[in-house]
Automatic annotation (TrEMBL):
Origin: domain of life: Eukaryota
Residue ranges occupied by any 2Fe-2S ferredoxin-type domain in the UniProt entry: 66-170
Alphabetic keyword roster: 2Fe-2S, Electron transport, Iron, Iron-sulfur, Metal-binding, Mitochondrion, Transport
Main location: mitochondrion
GO molecular function, one term: metal ion binding
The protein's name: 2Fe-2S ferredoxin-type domain-containing protein
GO cellular component, one term: mitochondrial matrix
Length: 181
């Protein structure tokens, strides 16, 4: 069994919700000397030369959060916090912000309902726009030169304190109807 096949099996077990322990799985640096062993209901490959696989995550600290200010359709400023690596859409969902129709496709880049408008200086910090995002933005209601999709903007510490304005209305191209507040 190749190392690639073994890795795929381990990832499949993990994706299926099987409990994984640090020492439960080992990977081989080569395929020589492989033998079979099993856990209840699962077949796993073990080897004579072992390397433990472990992962660790750092606990999130309050000061590692990034502050984002949203201006909703009523002109109210709503401040939320997100973790670096999260998208602006994730922040809206995780903080349960009530922006009607926002993020209808859940970040699959299949609509433009997470359309946000930024000030020019903030827009320049956001990174490049992909062709796929530009295609969706072309269909967005109230498109501006500084429009972006919230699902495509990942938070970094350099974005701390930015302001994003939610447009007056959104268009969900999947339904071909206008959702207004």
């Amino acid at each position: 069994m190749s190392l690639v096949t073994l890795t795929r099996r381990l990832l499949n077990l993990s994706a299926q919700g099987s409990p994984l322990r640090r020492s439960a799985f080992v990977l081989a640096s080569d395929t020589a000397g492989l033998k079979r062993c099993s856990l209840p209901g699962q077949l796993q490959a073990c080897c004579t030369r072992q390397r433990n696989v472990s992962t660790s995550t750092q606990p999130l600290r309050a000061d590692s959060k990034v502050t984002i200010n949203f201006i909703n359709r009523d002109g109210e400023k709503i401040t939320a916090k997100g973790s670096p690596g999260e998208s602006l859409l994730d922040v809206v969902i995780n903080q349960d912000l009530d922006f009607d129709g926002f993020g209808a496709c859940e970040g699959t880049l299949a609509c433009s309902t997470c359309h946000l408008i930024f000030d020019e200086d903030v827009y320049k910090k956001l990174g490049p726009v992909t062709d796929e995002e530009m295609d969706m933005l072309d269909l967005a209601y109230g498109l501006t030169d500084t429009s972006r999709l919230g699902c495509q903007i990942c938070l970094t510490r350099s974005l701390d304190g930015i302001t994003a304005r939610v447009p007056d209305s959104v268009t969900d191209i999947r339904q071909s109807e206008d959702v207004s507040s």
